[in-house]
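> run fold MmgE/PrpD family protein
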Amino acid sequence: METFMERRDFLAQTAAAVSATLLLGSFRTDRYDFVGSALAAGSSDSPKAALEQRFADFALALRYEVLPADVIQSVKRVLLDTLGCAFGSVGFDPANIAETTIRKTFGEGNTATVIGYPRPATIEGALFVNGVLVRSLDLNDTYIGTEPLHPSEVLPTAIALCEENGRTGRDLIEAVVAGYEASMRLNDAISFIERGFHPLCAASYGIPLIAGKIWGLPKEAIANAVGISGARGFTSFVVNSGAISMMKAMGLAATATDGVFATRLAAQGFTGPSGTLDWLVGVENETRQRGFCR
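> ok
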């Protein structure tokens, strides 16, 4: 008891001292200046400073005109397959609950189509429900890299944002390829499962590329968006363990909503961290050895 009282007194006195310092105006806020962007957070030749920049460079360099014909055909096939999965899920509980909830959360909107439902919604609302629809039946397109991934779940983001911004079919294909490729390359390079995370974490790096490309953002904004989204995008693999709950259907939908919000922030000048994968064990060596940085 005596030790407890001593600690409590110490904490109380410390709090009082800090409060007094703040009130006297001697607190130095210049210690907490933020970096200008994810690109400025490290030296330009540092691998951990370059990852977000490389993603941004990749997205901006991608053009429909240089895409191989088989890639374009594959995107069209995946689009049809993904829409089929979504329509097949309409009316089931996960989508119905999601559709009701997004209107209470984001409000009514007239921006983007909610697949299979009569009323449109806000961007975040539509891409969330559509993401749940795509995943619910567990039949959507799968990529087997280091571990299984469903990159087709990035399509609802591309579709909703292209609809909002009046983009063409070619713009849609470009955005899908950017999100798909980034997610698959990261999935090739890193095992998320062995670290306790879900492979859908890879899409937290692909979603900002989709949004940034459709919105026509500059490299710095896209790099910051990737940093923000990547830092927040680590979903536990527990969603695929044991008794499977409805959350399995919303995992990437939630990541996509978060990634779009991250891109909105970055578009307004909000900065994100660099090296967002460095804390994973041995990630720099893995990305080199498995070819991600080639």
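Residues 32 and 236 are 31 Å apart (CA to CA).
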